[in-house]
Amino acid sequence: MDSKEIQELLKLINRLELAEFKYKQGDLQFSVRTKFYPTSRGGVEMVPVPMAPPVIAAPVAAPAAPPAARPKAESEGESPAPGTSGPAKENLVEIRSPIVGTFYRSSSPDKPAYVKPGDNVEVGSVVCIVEAMKLFNEIESEVAGKVVKIMVEDASPVEYDQLLFLIDPNG
Questions:
Q1: Residue 29 in this model has a pLDDT that exceeds 90
Q2: Structure pTM?
Q3: Contacting residues for 44 by C-beta, under 8 A, at least 6 apart
Q4: CATH number of the domain encompassing residue 101
Q5: Beta 126-132 vs 135-140: how paired, if at all?
């Protein structure tokens, strides 16, 4: 083993964050202890690092504009950024994802969406599909009313209990 190979080995040991490495081949043997090697106090010295809560990515939006000047894309199903004024939620019913998967607004790319903002839905109407493990699960509305907002973009991953639609039962 030449010096260049030893340097490459040391870089690998550092990159893998090994505590100790021992090498033996024929007459050549050596050991390396890194900063991760246990201290005399019986363990690796741990330094607490404060962690921020996980951040869930949200679409970036411009500051709230008057309702007449809002971009059309928002009415097409994009969710407003936190802090922007959205529809009043007091009288709206939420449809949430019952499973983790991929959200689809239609049964295939060449078919129309099941619902659009402004459409009326009945109890039991299919509003979207959530694909999970190659199974396409139809999500049905549990309330009759008017679709106010679609909160997820087509072909986006969704989590369990994630908000998908806002429905106005008085609409």
A1: no
A2: 0.49
A3: 19, 36, 37, 38
A4: 2.40.50.100
A5: antiparallel
